[in-house]
Specification:
single chain, 163 residues, mainly alpha, Ferritin, 5 helices, 70% helix, globular, binds fe (ii) ion
Length: 163
């Protein structure tokens, strides 16, 4: 049985499409985001494993560590909103975590990544503006700022790849 409510997307592809449609996120939406963010750690680690240089691998691994920090901030947000402690899923229990051990890094992927990460900043900022709890808004904004940094790291990785 999935750890996610049945009304939410059960695959990461559907989840990414879905989050773009959310105006004001619900607690269930934050649970979905926790699963997506946590799966980001495995995804970035797979790319770090497949990266052609240590410099590129380090940039991607840094993004991955922060995706898990984003999941933890969302966990804190849910706790502030409802008192519930939603458990961050392991790679084995996370329905969105399908990354293999290693993934190849190429220019097109890094371009897409940068776009997605910059979009993530806008998404979190938009959500922050809808929050009534200032502390929750602050947590979302911090995630957003770091998504921007992820996009910048993707651009740095691309510059290293094409140098
Ligand atoms: Fe994130
Ligand atoms: Fe990110």
């Amino acid at each position: 049985m999935s750890i996610l409510p049945a009304s939410l997307p059960q695959t990461s592809e559907e989840a990414f499409a879905y989050i773009g449609t959310i105006g004001t996120p619900t607690v269930d939406d934050f649970k979905l985001m926790i699963c997506l963010e946590a799966s980001g750690l495995s995804f970035y680690n797979a790319l770090a494993a497949g990266a052609p240089s240590k410099e590129i691998a380090d940039l991607l691994a840094a993004n991955g560590r922060e995706e898990m920090a984003h999941a933890k901030r969302l966990q804190k947000a849910i706790q502030l909103m409802t008192g519930e402690m939603f458990e961050i899923p392991s790679p084995q229990t996370n329905p969105y975590d399908t990354a293999p051990a290693s993934l190849p890094v190429d220019e097109a992927l890094l371009d897409n990544m940068a776009k997605g990460e910059f979009g993530g900043e806008l998404m979190y900022e938009g959500w922050a503006q809808k929050m009534t709890d200032a502390e929750v808004a602050k947590l979302l904004r911090q995630n957003g700022k770091e998504e921007r940094r992820h996009g910048e790291r993707a651009e740095q990785a691309k510059a290293l790849l094409t140098a």
